Amino acid sequence: MKVKLIYNPVSGHGRFKNHLDYIIEKFQEAGLQIEPFRTGKKEELDKMISLMNEKEYSKVLVAGGDGTINQVVNCLLKYNITLPLGIFPVGTANDYAQYFNLPHEIEEIVEILLGDHYTLSDIGLVNERYFINVASLGVLIDISQRTNTELKNSLGVLAYYLNGIGELSKIKPVQIRVNSEMLNYDGEILFMLIMNGKSAGGFNKIAPCASINDGLLDIFIFKKCPIYELAPLLLAVINGEHINNLNVIHFKTKELTVDTKNDVGTDLDGEEGPLFPLKVTVIPKKLKIIT
Ligand SMILES: Nc1ncnc2c1ncn2[C@@H]1O[C@H](COP(=O)(O)OP(=O)(O)OP(=O)(O)O)[C@@H](O)[C@H]1O
């Protein structure tokens, strides 16, 4: 049986490739043939997955951060491939992997990925595209997408967001309209997070109440607020105390739509997201994650 290993050579500090020989050895010992694929252009990943014969593989392993997993999952589901998914958390933040408490130590993670213990995971769908951990829109998105992997590696995740937060004062709030069976909102916001997992951008207390397989998304709307309230709000987010903040609206739902007339960026797991209007749903327990 074969195991497809898709690795991003630049994720995190780009050190994953040093472990390839060890990984191949361990899987070979278990009678499994590792078939590596190095990510590069999105079209190449799509083509490789389109040619995969699911029956020849026992699992798909991904080495990278959330952006890499996002791209792989989108391609796998496009071609209806439902193999178990294993993760080497070698990105910068690894928010999705962190949900499952996956270890970073290579020996430990190989042990897990050789095993057959799984946790089912919901995934979100925005228009035609899937997200594994978080969909977001508003000002922070622009900051995160403009920060290249190299800079992220050197600054660290929190640092680059904190760096970016300085830009908040320069950026105008945007008018959005949110409709769902749980809540309707029409007003000015700074940003909005649609969470499947618990953490985003390395902030690990964003959605402590979220569950990855409850069939629901946790929505956080950060409303327009005076500049002097931004620093306390950021502190509250870091400490996971923002849910009761007057500038924050939180609710759970299985679907919503979001629209705006402004020019607002969207983001799926750190990758540039789709255009408005957004129709967001959750597909319960769609992924089988090796844990
Ligand atoms: N060979 C490559 N060279 C340069 N960039 C690449 C290559 N392969 C993939 N990428 C890019 O890497 C990005 C994904 O990085 P990823 O999110 O996995 O890592 P990260 O940013 O270090 O981690 P995290 O999302 O956890 O912060 C994608 O935008 C993808 O286009």
UniProtKB/TrEMBL annotation:
Pfam families for the chain: DAGK_cat, YegS_C
One CC-aspect GO term: plasma membrane
Reported cofactor(s): Mg(2+)
UniProt keyword terms in alphabetical order: ATP-binding, Kinase, Lipid biosynthesis, Lipid metabolism, Magnesium, Metal-binding, Nucleotide-binding, Phospholipid biosynthesis, Phospholipid metabolism, Transferase
Coiled-coil stretches noted in the UniProt entry, renumbered to this chain: none
Keyword Membrane: no
InterPro entries: ATP-NAD_kinase_N, Diacylglycerol/lipid_kinase, Diacylglycerol_kinase_cat_dom, Lipid_Phosphate_FormReg, NAD/diacylglycerol_kinase_sf, YegS/DAGK_C
Gene Ontology molecular function: any one: ATP-dependent diacylglycerol kinase activity
Chain ranges of the DAGKc domain: 1-130
One GO BP: phospholipid biosynthetic process
NCBIfam families: PRK13059.1, YegS/Rv2252/BmrU family lipid kinase
Protein family according to the UniProt entry: Belongs to the diacylglycerol/lipid kinase family.
Name assigned to this protein: Transcriptional regulator
